[in-house]
Amino acid sequence: MQDKxxxxxxxxxxxxxxxxxxxxxxxxxxxRLCTMDDASxxxxxxxxxxxxxxxxxEGESNPDDMSILYAIETHDGIRGTISNAFGTYGDExxxxxxxxxxxxxxxxxxxxx
Length: 113
What we know:
Number of helices: 3
Oligomer: single chain
CATH architecture: Roll
Structural class: alpha+beta
Radius of gyration: 14 Å
CATH class: Mainly Beta
């Protein structure tokens, strides 16, 4: 049996999300969510994206070292993740984009199905 910390590690959460089909890596460029896959290279506005779930992580040695991982699904069925740090180390472009998405609501179905 895994202990709770190990279960909630970023690597294990990413592994679980990958198994659930969240395999695309996203970034934010020029106010749009972008796939990081050069082959498909798609972009999405806030109204084309749903935050399915999110996970917060705290650094082992420093409580200020926090990050958040979002599981995202696009309107055309692309599933993936994007992460960001909290506070001064956070990427404001990601924060600004996701605040717009969050205003549209979340589908927090933990089963990811």
